[in-house]
Amino acid sequence: MHRGKGMKFVGDSRIKANHRMPNVPKDYSEYPGKTEAFWPNFLLKEWMVGAVFLIGYLLLTVAHPSPLEGPADPTKPYTPLPDWYFLFIYQLLKYTYASGPYNVIGAIVMPGIAFMALLLMPFLDTTPERKPSKRPLPTAFMMLTLASMFYLTWESVVNHDWVAGKAQGAIVHEVEFDKESEGYQAYSASSCIGCHGGDLTGGAGPGLTNTGLTADEIKNIAINGSESGAMPAGLWQGTDEDLQKVAEFIESLKSE
After folding, report:
1. What is the pLDDT of residues 12-33, one digit of tens each?
2. What are the residue ranges spanned by the domains of the chain?
3. Which CATH class is domain 182-251?
4. Whole-angstrom Cα distance, residue 227 to residue 224?
5. Is the peptide bond prior to 40 cis by the omega test (within 30 degrees of 0)?
6. From 7, 115, 135, 136, which residue has the greatest number of CB atoms within 10 Å?
7. Which tens digit of pLDDT belongs to each residue from 188-227?
C-alpha cells in the first residue's frame, strides 16, 4: 500500500500557516531584456524618470517665470489670447462658418467630433497590426489632425499683433494724482479717457504718465497729432481752457 493512498488533506482556515511564501517576482529569465517584474523594478524606473523630469520642469519655471500682465481694467480695450496649445481653436473661430451665428459649430461641434473620434479609435481600429503603413485609415486621420492643428496654430501666430498685445497687457507703474483736480476732471470729460484709460496708464493709446513732455508739447500733439501717426490730428474737441488744464495735469504726472 503506497503512502498517502486513499487519504485526503483538508485545509483549516482556523490554523495559521507557519510558513508563507515570500513575494518573489516571477522568473523572467526566459525572456532576457524583454520584460521584468512590475514591482519594484519597472515602477522604480518610472519614478526615477518622472523625478528627473519634475526637477527639470521646476528649475525651468524658476529660471523663466510666467510673464505677468497688468490687472484687468474695464476702461481699457484688451484682446485676450489663449495659451499656445489652444491657439488652433482660437484661429478656427475666426473663420466664417465657425464664428458669429455659426459659433456653436466652431466651439462645440467640430472639437466634439475630434475628441469623440479619439475616444472611439480603439473600437474603430481593431487590427492587431502596429505599423502605420498597414493601418492606412487611422494613420491618415491622425496625420490630418496634426496637420490641421499645426496650420491653424501657425496662422494664429502669424496674424496676431504681438506688439499691440504686449502694450495692452504691460504693467505700468501708476502715478498718484488727485481725481478731484480740475485737470483730471477736464481729462475725464474729454474723449482722451477712452484711449488712455481712467488711470492714464494706457489702453488703445499709450500711457500718459512720465511722458517727459511739456504742457505746450502736449497741447500740440492733442491738436496736430503725433509725429509717428499713432494719434491723428483733430481728436481734441474741448475748449482751449480745458486743453490747458489737461496739458498741465499730464505734465505733472511724474514718479517721485
Report:
1. 555 555 555 565 556 656 666 6
2. 30-66, 84-169, 182-251
3. mainly alpha
4. 9
5. yes
6. 135
7. 777 777 777 777 767 677 777 777 778 788 878 877 777 7
